Amino acid sequence: MIASVAAGLLGLLCLSIPVGIVLFILGFGIDAFFSPFPLIRGLGNLVWSSSNSATLIAIPFFVLLGEILVRSGLAARTYTALDRWVSWLPGGLVHANIATATMFSATSGSSVATAATVATVAMPQAEKLGYDQKLFSGAIAAGGTLGIMIPPSINLIVYGFLTQTSIPQLFVAGLVPGVLLALSFVLVVGIICSIRPDLGGERRVFPFGQMMRALGDLLPIILLFTLIIGSIYKGWATPTEAASVGVGGAIAIAAMFGGINARMVSDALIGTVKITAMIMLVVIGASFLNFTLSAAGMGQELRDFLEGLGFSPLMTILVIIAMYVILGFFIETLSLMVVTIPIVVPLVVKLGYDPIWFGILMIVLIEMALITPPVGLNLYVVQGARKSGKMSDVMLGTIPFVIAMSLMIVALVAFPEIALYLPQALE
């Protein structure tokens, strides 16, 4: 049955059918051929129960927060400010791509939104200043993946919702791995451009006065991050409430910089509705698919297969990692998470692993899937912003960053404290 479902999923995705619809179609098919009961009768109740959660309300708020930052021009100001501070490093403006993605990740909660934002403001600079298109584009695509690791993260909210794991603890757990990944990206660029200076363009040093004045443009993002995350960990607000507070803060800051007008607000709201509808269609479709898979016995079948291998807990984790790497080539990341979490996480917990640690490990695997072809969403986002050149340039440019992510996976498996130290210290 596992092979049949996998083949059906890949076949439908190859037909360019929207992912959420694919999940529903597979659920109907499994219900018809494998399930002994007509589960379709409970579809209405299932759709309602899978979407009727206060936790999920945080998603549209964080999406709206990112939309406001992009459309009000705050993201472009942040990029210009970071250019003043990091362009002296080997690689020049490439580091500004990574630094901007890191800071924007601390407020947007979305990988695709982060990649789209940085690509929009950065790509015009690549040709003007003579940067290598591969490395420049690859850094934007890879930096964008930090949006689902550094809190607040929409994917961590979904993981916490599906596993009944503390979302504040997941947010804390993602801080150190997220920062380490960002630093590893900077290190990778620095090494490459030290060996091949021609790939990094001109290294620019700005007067100290300009650098200090640029800090004023970084304060809005820092204040928003402090407002959102601080309110959660102080116990003043739940993640959902903190998201709404963040939206209010973003509107106030955008108004201070003159970025608020009727057209901007309208575009931000429409963009939020579109992105939220896409996310919720995937969540609801995956919930229905999981329900039919459980009724047909596939979840138990997969668990029996993994347990029947007779491997040690560590070897089983390595098999699960390999499974996610392979599936990540072909399946959209959010749907990959939602479909597999109810099956895999109970097994991981049974093996004695911490669900918070596994959540962070899964996010790194999902990040890798975002920049590996043929379905890596960030690749298409960056290529769309380029508006010229070959798609293969972006794919080749992400290879060094995929290697850095692979090393992070190894580090998390070898040293779980990377993810667990902060949550345990703050308990």
UniProtKB/TrEMBL annotation:
Cross-referenced InterPro entries: DctM, TRAP_DctM
Quaternary state and interactors: The complex comprises the extracytoplasmic solute receptor protein and the two transmembrane proteins.
Cited function: Part of the tripartite ATP-independent periplasmic (TRAP) transport system.
Alphabetized UniProt keyword annotations: Cell inner membrane, Cell membrane, Membrane, Transmembrane, Transmembrane helix, Transport
Localization terms from the record: Cell inner membrane
UniProt name for this protein: TRAP transporter large permease protein
Transmembrane segments: 6-34, 54-74, 94-123, 135-158, 170-193, 214-236, 242-262, 269-289, 309-327, 359-382, 394-415
GO CC annotations, alphabetized: plasma membrane
Membrane disposition: Multi-pass membrane protein
Family stated for the protein in its record: Belongs to the TRAP transporter large permease family.
Family matches, as NCBIfam families: dctM (TIGR00786)
Location of the TRAP C4-dicarboxylate transport system permease DctM subunit domain: 8-418
MF annotations from Gene Ontology: transmembrane transporter activity
Predominant subcellular localization, coarse grouping: membrane
